[in-house]
Amino acid sequence: MALREILLVPNPVLKQVSKRVEVVDDDLRVLMDDMLATMYAAPGIGLAAIQVGVPKRVIVMDLHRPEEAKQPRFFVNPEILWASEETAPYEEGCLSVPEIYDEVERPAQVKLRYLNYQGETVEEDAEGLFAVCIQHEMDHLEGVLFIDHLSRLKREQAVKKVKKMVKAA
Ligand code: K2U
Ligand code: ZN
Question: Can 137 be counted among the known catalytic residues?
């Protein structure tokens, strides 16, 4: 297991559309293990492969509470089969847009289909933080960041702030 670099805005790689995975094999599981370790170290609760520079439709996630044991989740080639008309706001952040937080409105419930760590097909309903996080990560697979849902002014201010932060580091 190895920690990978998390790409930051305005890296153009983050705008790429990620490609479907052909087979869930040991090489892919090494990537998923590295992504999970990188997410825990950030720390974060979700991470898409493009954020570590790999344009594959792969997401890792762990929504466990501090008092609970870790609950790692793996999503390969995730699809949204249904989304509720009802929406809900959530104050989002992103490991590729550090120290920027703003409200994004998304469908409150979604039905997912994906391949798990073993390559088995799973269908699952998501709501609450799970629904927010999976939609945030699936945006990454389309090259979309949460700041792309904000006004142009807020988006430009966010990128300017991250560039200044990186320069000062
Ligand atoms: O894509 C990422 O950078 C992972 C996000 C996942 C996330 C975004 C918005 C809302 C929920 C999850 C990072 O984990 S952002 C850090 C974070 C940590 C705890 C709660 C919310 C956001
Ligand atoms: Zn993100």
Answer: yes
